[in-house]
Amino acid sequence: MAHLFPVVLLVAALGAQVPGEEFGVFRDPPRLLLTPQRLKLLERERQRESIRWEQFELLMRGKAAMPEPGFAHALYYRIAKDEASARQAIQWAMSAGDIRQTALVYDWCQEVMTPAQKAAIGQKLEAAAKRSATGPAAVRDRVFAGIAIADRLEDHGEKQLRDVVQNWFRGGIVTRLNQGSDPIPREQVYALVELLHVVRDNLNIDLRENARAYFAELPLYHLASHYPASYPAPENEYRIPAFVQDRRRGGEPDLAKAAMSRAAGLALVALDTNAVESQFLQGYLIQDRFLMRGALGVPYEFLWANPYQPGLTYSHVPLTLYDRRTGRLYARSGWEDDATWLGLFDGQLQLFEDGEIRNVRVGDKPLRFGSNTIQPGKSPGRMTIDNENTLLLGFPAGAVFHVELEDQEMREMQADPSGTLVLRAPKETKIEVRFHQPVSVKPAR
């Protein structure tokens, strides 16, 4: 496996229908997330009294205050057949404004609803399905609503789902990926993964096919975007996803976001359990000390975690991951908890070292991560590189340079959307590099 990943996106049929695709939903409920295979796994977890089921059941029987009551009570009903939980979920959904959870309640608890309840909740979801939406979470909510009430719609959701697949995803998300932007905020990866699941489960359309390389590497980038050190909380340890520090919070992590980041990882693994990248992520996630036991995380832990899925040792994941298209970069000195970590994301450069997060300047000293060196770039100027891959930071985004490498002809090179340029040298060889003034600045490709 290479130490550096330049991602190249493969695009298919933007905004066009692929022959044979159908967008109407005709499956019997449950349609959202609980496929027959997943239901079988969850029921087996209950029969075996697994630690995940026991923790979920403990909170539900103890009447713990659940941050997402519709989701939690509806899921408990589907597995424990506890009609009291279904009625509690339904009562909550009657007045709730959370469309995602309301759709799950409608889809998972229909057998317990009265005709009046089913009509009232169905009307609410029908209105939500018709609303316009742009961000991944809002689109996911709209799709959940449409699929849950497909039987109420004359076209079984065909118009709405066609619009989401062809226009929002293929014509929007994939196009923006190819233009060098990342339209999926890290905090909305979970919403996107839920959307990928339900579209595939109900329409037999795998949206990842429109940007194969991006989604193939997403599990590794998700893994690499967490700081090395774990965070001990009363209920369990957390891996903390990289975040832009908020002066109001100081350097304290948001454990709710950490829980949802773990949920995103578990759901990513479930998308493609056979992929090597998913198996690396599974090896990273499945350690018992990170098993979520809190009221927010435990329903997600129970829903998505598969302890029977083999995981690969994540220490074999490359220490440096670099996406040429978007400019995102994660590097680390090793896989130990005390490793040094560097991230270039959301327009800032961060260093995690000795248990602390600090923003660093491009002009700081070069950092080495295995066969990769990360250092500031100079233009115009000369420098010597002596590592297989040298990532030069701080150039203008999209700047095009004439570059002379020792004993080679002058070449034209372009910085990525984050102002990063990659140079490669023969192993254990020092070569001199000369940069001329930028000749132009144009969109990075």
Determine the number of helices (DSSP H or I, runs of at least 4 residues). 13
What is the terminal-to-terminal distance? 24 Å
Largest sheet: 5 strands, antiparallel
**So what's the overall shape?**
globular
The share of residues in helices is 25-40%
Uncertain stretches: 5-14
Explain how this protein is built.
The structure is a single chain. The chain has 445 residues and is α+β, with helices and mostly antiparallel strands. The protein has helices spanning 36-47, 51-61, 69-80, 83-95, 99-108, 115-130, 136-148, 158-178, 189-203, 212-224, 255-271, 276-285, 297-304; strands at residues 226-232, 237-241, 320-322, 329-332, 341-345, 348-353, 356-359, 367-369, 372-376, 381-385, 389-393, 399-405, 411-414, 421-424, 431-435, 440-441. The protein has a five-stranded antiparallel beta sheet, with helices on one face. The protein starts with 35 loop residues before the first helix and ends with a strand. Mean pLDDT is 90; it is low at 5-14.
